[in-house]
Write a structure and sequence with these properties.
The complex is a heterodimer of chains A (180) and B (126).
Chain A: H1 9-27, H2 34-59, H3 73-80, H4 90-97, H5 100-110, E1 131-132, E2 138-139, H6 149-179
Antiparallel strand pairs in A: 1-2
Chain B: E1 6-12, E2 21-27, E3 42-47, E4 59-65, H1 67-76, H2 79-89, E5 93-98, H3 102-122
Parallel strand pairs in B: 2-4
Antiparallel strand pairs in B: 1-2, 1-5, 3-4
Helix pairs in contact in B: 1-3, 2-3
The chains are: A mainly alpha (180), B alpha+beta (126).
């Protein structure tokens, strides 16, 4: 039996998030694979946010239910609303992590996951499925210049910063109860 | 914790909040053994009512780092480490755990680093 099977579940989510991040950094060096790199950054963000939600649930009075779907924004909204308290700085640290400016950029990344358009709307740019560009023509996410280098670098920087901060928060949260 | 083995754990006192519990830990692989880009040690604060076995008016202040980051924090005199250093310098600490050799070495680094700080403070450099 692997010694890793008794890891707290928040740490298991985080382990996968870090693997997704490593995959993203390998993919982004090839322009024709940018759409896949963006998809991996989105998955990195999703799993790291869930890791934090689980860690908060496991180690504080706040309870968050984790579902096996690709919903991310809901968890960020919940984490941003963990009640401030004079006895703990954890909610403040989480709000600082998901500040307005960074969260706006993260929402842009989250929006790259494929979704069915509303009736009458075009299929929007996404990382996996054919979509309709501004002229209404069908394009593939892997087509040249669908994702710019600037966009990729922004999401890379922000996702890396977010997941590494979450890694530290998760690590310290799981040490807390054991400390006393 | 198997994935982040504890190397050193100190219980220390500060000049403020004497009723609170201050813990400092160095754990291998904490934060992936990465160094904070903000030059900031990770510290969380918890009060009673969060499942911790502490008094109602107490708070737990838990500061955690890894060996690489600790080394950088000592070299660069990160602010967060200074209160731990002051406690070690003044003897207001208790070693809760020190891993054989590794933990003891880290404690010596903290002691020596504290001595350097003391010299710098005395010289008016900081």
């Amino acid at each position: 039996m692997s010694s890793e099977t008794d890891l707290p579940s928040g740490k298991v989510w985080l382990r996968q998030a870090l693997s997704d991040l490593e995959c993203a950094t390998l993919l982004e060096v090839r322009p024709e694979l940018r759409c896949h790199a963006v998809a991996k950054y989105q998955q990195t963000l999703e799993k790291s946010v869930k890791a934090l939600a689980v860690a908060v649930s496991d180690n504080t009075a706040v309870q968050i239910t984790i579902r096996f779907n690709h919903e991310v924004e809901g968890y960020i909204n919940i984490l941003q609303r963990v009640p401030l308290t004079p006895t703990s700085n954890v909610p403040q640290r989480i709000r600082s992590l998901f500040n307005a400016r960074d969260t706006s950029l993260l929402h842009d990344l989250i929006a790259q996951a494929p979704r069915r358009p509303a009736p009458g709307e075009n299929f929007a740019r996404n990382t996996e499925y054919p979509f309709q560009n501004a002229e209404g023509e069908w394009a593939a996410p892997a087509d040249a210049d669908v994702y710019s280098l600037e966009e990729l670098r922004t999401w890379s920087r922000l996702t890396t910063k977010t997941v590494l901060e979450i890694e530290r928060l998760v690590g310290v949260l799981y040490r807390t109860k054991r400390a006393v | 914790m198997k994935d982040q083995p504890l190397l050193l754990a100190l219980y220390y006192a500060t000049d403020h909040d004497p009723e609170d519990i201050f813990l400092f830990e160095i754990a291998d692989k904490f934060g992936g053994n990465r160094i904070s880009e903000d030059s900031e040690l990770m510290e969380v604060t918890f009060g009673a009512g969060t499942g911790l076995q502490i008094q109602a008016d107490q708070r737990l202040h838990l500061m955690v780092t890894n060996p690489r980051e600790f080394d950088m924090a000592v070299q660069k005199r990160w602010q967060g480490l200074q209160k731990v250093g002051q406690a070690v310098r003044s003897g207001r600490f208790q070693t809760l755990y020190a891993a054989p050799e590794a933990g003891e070495n880290l404690l010596n680094v903290l002691r020596n680093g504290s001595a350097i700080w003391q010299g710098l403070v005395a010289a008016g450099a900081i």
